[in-house]
Structure prediction request, 148 residues.
Amino acid sequence: MVPSIAILMKIAQGLKQHVTVLFEDENEPDEVALMRRSEREVVNIPASKLKVADLGSSIIDANLEVTLLTIEKSGVSGKDPLIHEGEEIKFCLEGRIAYFINDHEYHLESGDCIHFKSNRPHYWKNIHPETTRVLSVVFNPPVSESVG
Prediction:
């Protein structure tokens, strides 16, 4: 069985790491990261019908995870809501997606954006009959501050 993005995030939380650690290559981070289109790493998460393209989360001590989410028809983040420290901004580039945050449902269409605290239960579902693409920016507080 292949884990959903929700399961991968719980694993990262248990390791007291950002979820991007699970997908990093072994190159040393730098203070500037230029990500050419042809160099983008894409991680496929079949359980969520999701492809995650890293848009540049590889600088030293990065607190932002910037990714392009490509979600196939009927893709969903997982059975359990996500809960973690930080904030998120999601910008719908193409298609339609529903975000469920604190038992409220928010529908985003192309050009719509949502910003929320990540410590509120949340999950997403592609509600478009085709692929949806979302620009995702997640702020993660430094691991040393969030570990208690």
The radius of gyration is 15 Å.
